[in-house]
Amino acid sequence: MNQLLAPLLLSLLPLTAVAATAPTHAQIEASILAMIEAEKTPAASTQDLLLHAMFTPRGFEHGPCFASAAVSGAFECLVGMEMGIRNRYRMLRFLPQGMGWVLEKADVPAPVPPRERARELLSERLDARVATLADATARGQMRAFQQRLQVIAIEDCELRDMGAAEITCDVTAGDDTERGTEPQTYVFDAQGQWQNAAPDADR
Q1: How far is residue 63's CA from residue 192's CA, in Å, rounded to a whole number?
Q2: How far apart are CA 64 and CA 194, in angstroms?
Q3: The sheet that has 100-106: what strands, in order across it?
């Protein structure tokens, strides 16, 4: 491509095309700290200074980012941070601005796992149940049910904002003959992929 034409063509691309990649960890942290600095009011006392220092986010922990379905060009990212003596997790929406990103909204709705991934993870839980069945006939029936299993709906996903980055959703699943709704809890692995959270007894 002609070297003179390349910058011109890039300048004509829509913003969403230029910002097709999620913000980096450094850009996320810079956006959060910039918003805090912009909203900071002058300290009235030494106590105010101490409280501000204590509750300024630090020790960031980064989860996956998802392209926003609500705002074109934006990304919604799972971010953990130390605030005071606790770790808190939040879903934050970032918008591209110039060469960087700006925090547009805090506490956006939790992401929803794809149905096929939810079906795979539900099948993993059924594998664990099958392993506890002593009766061969019951195991065969459970295996047959797994083959027919479909996820019909995933609703009311909520992020557990304290202690651990877990997302709990009401999952409706079943086959042609029966279906039911149960809460399922998910986490993200190091690659940002959906996984089942450990059973309560193991946490």
Answers
A1: 6
A2: 10
A3: 58-67, 75-83, 86-97, 100-106
Check if the beta carbon of residue 137 is closer than 8 Å to that of residue 162: no
Tell me the C-alpha to C-alpha distance, in Å, between residue 2 and each of 6, 13, 18. Answer: 6, 17, 20
Question: 64-113: per-residue pLDDT in tens?
Answer: 999 999 999 999 999 999 876 678 899 999 999 998 999 999 999 999 99
- The position carrying tokens 């539900």 is 122
Encoded tokens for 165: 């980055």
Amino acid identity, position 4: L
Residue 176 tokens read as 């042609």
Q: Give the CA distances from residue 68 to residues 85, 117, 186, 189, in Å, rounded to whole numbers and listed in that order.
A: 31, 19, 20, 21
- Cα separation values, 17 from 11, 12, 98, 141, 144, Å: 11, 10, 13, 50, 46
Element (H, E) at 27: helix 25-39
Count of C-beta atoms within a 10 Å radius of residue 48: 12
Range with the lowest mean pLDDT among 13-17, 27-31, 136-140? 13-17
Phi, psi of 39 (to 5 degrees): -95, -5
